[in-house]
Amino acid sequence: MSWFDSHASGSLTSRLSDDMERVKDGLGDKMSFAIQAFAQFVGGFAVGFYKGWDLTLVMLTVLPFFSIAGALISKVVASASTREQEKYMKAGAIAEEVLSCIRTVAAFGGQKREIRRYDRELEESEKIGIKKAFVTGAGMGLVFLIMYGTYSLAFW
């Protein structure tokens, strides 16, 4: 019950639906892609070490760069996703509050004010989403730079 002391009444349903969507995404394609990537890494390492152990050890020098890039991207995107979810949760709470009391809002002519309040929360969420997309794109660019640099190192 302490949830309602610090959050609006409509934010719980908004939060639950968003969390369920995240669980579905995490257990769907992303989990299978992670298993596939891990299996490819282990298989590639085993075959590479068997065929040419010296080249495999040289190629392993870039593994920390991949790890650092992945960790940074994950941390920034997770932080931005949390803030974005909070803003959507607030916007959902506003919408639910207004719709449940629509007669009162209409009686006092508060439609425009409530629309502005809802839009403000969505605009902040949109800004966070744009930053998250930029970081994701830049991070993927960095990962591909490291990957193609690794290819050039191997061919050299």
Automatic annotation (TrEMBL):
- Write down the superkingdom of origin: Eukaryota
- Domain ABC transmembrane type-1, first and last residues per copy: 1-156
UniProt-annotated location(s): Membrane
What is one GO cellular-component annotation here? membrane
Q: Which Pfam families match?
A: ABC_membrane
Q: Does the keyword Transmembrane apply?
A: yes
Q: What does the UniProt keyword field contain?
A: Membrane, Transmembrane, Transmembrane helix
Provide the transmembrane region boundaries.
56-78, 133-154
Membrane topology is: Multi-pass membrane protein
Which Gene3D superfamilies does this UniProt record tie to the protein?
A: ABC transporter type 1, transmembrane domain
A single GO molecular function term of this UniProt record: ATP binding
- Family matches, as InterPro entries: ABC1_TM_dom, ABC1_TM_sf, Type_1_exporter
Q: Does the keyword Membrane apply?
A: yes
Supply the CDD domains for this chain.
Answer: ABC_6TM_Pgp_ABCB1_D1_like
Q: What is this protein called?
A: Multidrug resistance protein 1B
Q: Which organism is it from?
A: Hypsibius exemplaris (Freshwater tardigrade)
